UniProtKB/TrEMBL annotation:
Coiled coil: none annotated. This is Enamine deaminase RidA (YjgF/YER057c/UK114 family). Belongs to the RutC family. It comes from the Bacteria. GO terms for cellular component: cytosol. GO terms for molecular function: deaminase activity. InterPro entries: RutC-like_sf, YjgF/YER057c/UK114. Pfam families: Ribonuc_L-PSP.
Amino acid sequence: MPIEQRLTNIPGNPVANRYSDAVVASGRVAYISGQIGLDADGNLVGPGDLRAQTEQSLRNMANILNELGATWSDVIKYTWFVLDVSQAAIIRDVRDSFLGDAPKPASSLVQVGGLVSPDLLIEVEAVVALP
């Protein structure tokens, strides 16, 4: 599957220094890197607050979708990495507020022992079928 485009430094998102925010393969599929609760200035949003970090992660993802010319309806798979899977209801609630009436994509929820920073509670990545 040939790589056609690598998107980096999406407006409104924290700077991606050592990775691409998204990679487009074969012109039809985009892989969005894990999004975390950092704002455009690289500041953590909602220390200790899973809801706030999930919302910021999805705002960052929305910026990438916009850059790709895609919408929430084009997301075909999420993978969520969380420190505490018992709080899945919070994640679902925030996800549903962003998705609205968009079809629910395939999804995996994985509890992990830690993320790239000890203050992070969640990371979410996605696969997108481009319009």
